[in-house]
Design brief:
Elements: E1 4-6, E2 13-15, H1 24-33, H2 36-53, H3 60-75
Antiparallel strand pairs: 1-2
Helix pairs in contact: 2-3
């Protein structure tokens, strides 16, 4: 049976992550409070941010920016989209 969490992002109980997806205390907090569904939503947002801002994940400033946006997306008011971003048509 999969574990469930009261997801801070979705506001409901949902399937939890199998392991902390990020190192340190933030990773533990995500593991305990964020569902797999919400984490997948973040991964799509993170990909969009990397592409739109042309970020390199090996750059320390880019990693810090992404970590800040991740925390806002999962636990706060949400990540802000780039000013000229146009979502792809599905």
């Amino acid at each position: 049976m999969s574990r469930t969490v009261q997801c801070a992002k979705l506001g409901r109980e949902a399937e939890g992550l199998k392991a902390p997806p990020y190192p340190g205390d933030l990773g533990k907090r995500i593991y305990l409070n964020i569902s797999n569904e919400a984490w997948q939503m973040w991964l799509k947002t993170q990909t969009m941010l990397i592409n739109e801002y042309r970020l390199s994940p090996v750059n320390p400033d880019a990693r810090k920016f992404l970590e800040t946006e991740m925390e806002k997306f999962l636990f706060g008011e949400g990540s802000v989209q780039p000013p000229d971003y146009v979502p792809p048509k599905e």
